[in-house]
Amino acid sequence: xxxxxxxxxHIAAGEKGLHRQVGWVHVLEITKIxxxxxxGDLILSTGLWxxxxxxxxxxxxxxxxxxxxxxxxxxxxSIDHIPADILELADEHGFPIIVFxxxxxxxxxxxxxxxxxxxxxxxxxxxxxxxxxxxxQLTLQSTDISSILRLLHEYxxxxxxxxxxxxxxxxxxxxxxxDAAAITExxxxxxxxxxxxxxxxxxxxxxxxxxxxxxxxVVIFGQVFSGVGIVTREQPTEAVSLLLDYTxxxxxxxxxxxxxxxxxxxxxQNGILQDLLSNRIHNEEQxxxxxxxxxxxxxxxxxxxxxxxxxxxxxxxxxxxxxxGHQDIxxxxxxxxxxxxxxxxxxxxxxxxxVLCAKESITKDxxxxxxxxxxxITADISRFATQQLEGVMIHAGFxxxxxxxxxxxxxxxxxxxxxxxxRSVPQMNPCLFYDRLGVYQLLKAAPNEFLKSFVQDHLGTLxxxxxxxxxxxxxxxxxYMNAFGSKLETxxxxxxxRQTLYNRLDxxxxxxxxxxxxxxxxxxxxxxxxAHDMLQHSR
Length: 539
Description:
By secondary structure, the protein is an alpha+beta fold. The protein is built from 17 helices and 14 strands. It has helices spanning 53-65, 84-93, 106-141, 145-156, 177-192, 238-265, 269-277, 284-290, 319-339, 366-388, 408-424, 440-445, 448-469, 473-482, 487-494, 498-512, 519-538; strands spanning 9-13, 24-27, 41-45, 70-74, 97-100, 159-164, 170-172, 203-206, 212-220, 223-232, 301-312, 344-349, 352-360, 392-398. The protein has a five-stranded mixed beta sheet. Strands 7-6-10-9-8 form a five-stranded antiparallel beta sheet, with helices on both faces. The protein has a four-stranded antiparallel beta sheet with strand order 12-13-11-14, with helices on both faces.
């Protein structure tokens, strides 16, 4: 409205929409205009459509629904006034209607505004190039994120917020504590737990009636670890969005570099974990102090030891690529544990990551919540490995929670057993925790030679008969046990006729003896079946 050519114009309606961004200007006199509209268009018209009472509202609604910037109408060519119902509709939607009281050359308007927009776009590109160059210099000079935030504030002239789960939150310029808390809460609600849909995207969040924050998450290894926000009372422009995008990429670079440096510095944890695995630390206070835990006057910590085994299915992968993948997984694991406020020690040994997690036992749900956190973290790491690392699979297991850190070696032994069972018994593949192994805790505790002898004692004759006659009696026995003795369900699961099942059951009784379904025999047979299955898949 400040352009010289608009000195002859005035706002007739929709003053609340004067903040709208104009992207382009063109003339539309036809009534079916939706296909020719784009967001941000400023439409020029002689108002011929206003003469058609049935169609004029529809014309204006098409403009509103297409998110056009506004409408310019000239008087004196087709009309000399705008009907009240059209003005009311424009006011209701905050859609600006600009009126020229006398005819005006539309070509002059388009030339003026298009020249302005093109020049502005050229200047925007120059500013962005300059910003990009400066931000690159900053990322090369140090790992100081605050300098990047100051630069963003300088170019956007808006309040900048940086919310992080890995570091301290930062605001530039500084804000009052209650405002910082409000912005942090808004980030947690609107950004931190939102699904990314496979890509980073800007998120508009309302702070109050007049203020919005344009957030963009900082994504590393497919996980949101922080976010940069611009607090504004205006509609964010494309320029602001691009500045934010450049900033977030720079912050992600610095954050990733910081995490790799931290990973390098924390390699001395290998010695602490190695001592725990070898039972060389006997003083609980010394152990907790070495982990950086504060000593509790009341209550206790819970400790869970776990192992993540990295399997490379691609046989021709170079060792350098394997090592790089291992480092990525280590950095992601540390970052996720840090994000979830889980104190930890982590050690890489060959293709295995040993992790010891601690949590202050505050409520009865502490152990369950810690296990849920570890389950989520494991799922995130497995997803990253599958999607980003070629031919890599993660096998993980965690031991029982213990109140003493010096007993961690037992947790790691249990974690190994979980991995062995999950790899050797298909139905136990999703199992992550030793507590949930059930009867396999007993089976893994027994030596393989004993298990082989146990299977031979209870199923040997049946296995030999099956191998010789191929009657599938072993699978029939397994299905019958799984169906709790239901003949109908057993026949369904095996896709066989009932009479075929009856014949097989008669043969089972003949081989196993008449008492094979008595409680003590049945329990022994079921245990032998589980042991046989585990031994078969372990080969």
